[in-house]
Amino acid sequence: MTAPLDDVYSLAAGTEVVPLRSGGALVRSDVASLQLEGASTRLFLERVLPLLDGQRSFDAVAAALPDVAPADLRGHLDALVAARVLRRSPRGLAPPAPVTPFLALLEAWGLPAPAARDALSKLRVVVLGLEAHGAHAAAQLADCGVGEVVLVDPFPCEPGNVALMPGVTPEAVGTPRQQVMARLLSGRGGRVTTPDVPLTREGVDALVRGASLALACFDRGLSAVHHWLNRASLAHAVPALYAELSSHTARVGPLVVPGSTACFMCYRMRGLACMDDFEPEMAWEEHLDRQRQPRLHARATLPPLAAQVGGVLAQEALKLLLGLRPTTLASHVLDLDALKPLPSLHPVLEKPDCPVCSKKAPGPPSLQGGRA
């Protein structure tokens, strides 16, 4: 399809042009590299490239080069667009600054910025738990332009949270964490909401209904929320991704895709069955279930791990929802240990007798066929 004459051309984000001694030129970025050779290289460097400022329309560029046939010029420019070293966009279109690097990467992967903005704007991600990694994930998703990030954590910010949450100062202590993060993220990307919904089984069910994805990030002192989310996720065919911190270690996953993977209960049942001594482990689980109070701020925790896990959650969420790459954490958990050089990935197998997912619900329509 021929591009409109008022389209504008510019170097793709992060692209540099380096003249070579041979008379050619290297056009390179972190995602693409192209070497120009031949008699037309000098023409491109000296006369064409200065005109590709993202402001002049193709018609204006062609008019400034009367000795070059417009059809030939268009063909060469579009070939450079296909090589991912130039970008072409409607005149006057400028992406919002916070998402520009991400949109540039998506364009390099073949998803044009307008389509990417449209896809991102339709996403609704619910983040349950903002005491550490959940806050980091929410911030990154907002910065990437997710249409709505729903913040769920009505508990007051504690002094220990200041080091675990991004951008939080001591003045936030005493304010509900969801309000703290909503203020910090206001104006960054899409909408940030804090629904007035009770943190109960029924409340979690209402929050998840209609979402694109839910992230479970509460501390194990409120582990009941993970089980409420698991049931709501399966009931409404909404993918859910779980994560928790413990001292200098973290576990990210599993990603539960209803109808396609093991569920969170499968994961917990198999985990408990593998324990050396079942009785004390089960007693510990029941003790945590009765607390109904997240207390990561009172536990020994490595703050940089919160940012690392938040980043993994955000990137896996975007991979899943935009169909960018295979989802690493579907039916898997990623173990991170700050004292070890490499993470480890473990499969999570379905439990045929799982009381929650043994009768599978169909997967979400947007994910059937393996692509968002």
From TrEMBL:
Xref: InterPro entries: Bacteriocin_synth_cyclodeHase (IPR022291), ThiF_NAD_FAD-bd (IPR000594), Ubiquitin-activating_enz (IPR035985)
Pfam families: ThiF
Domain THIF-type NAD/FAD binding fold: 115-355
Molecular function GO labels: ubiquitin-like modifier activating enzyme activity
UniProt region (Disordered), positions on chain: 353-372
Protein name: TOMM leader peptide-binding protein
Naturally occurring in which organism (per UniProt): Pyxidicoccus fallax
High-level lineage: Bacteria, Pseudomonadati, Myxococcota, Myxococcia, Myxococcales
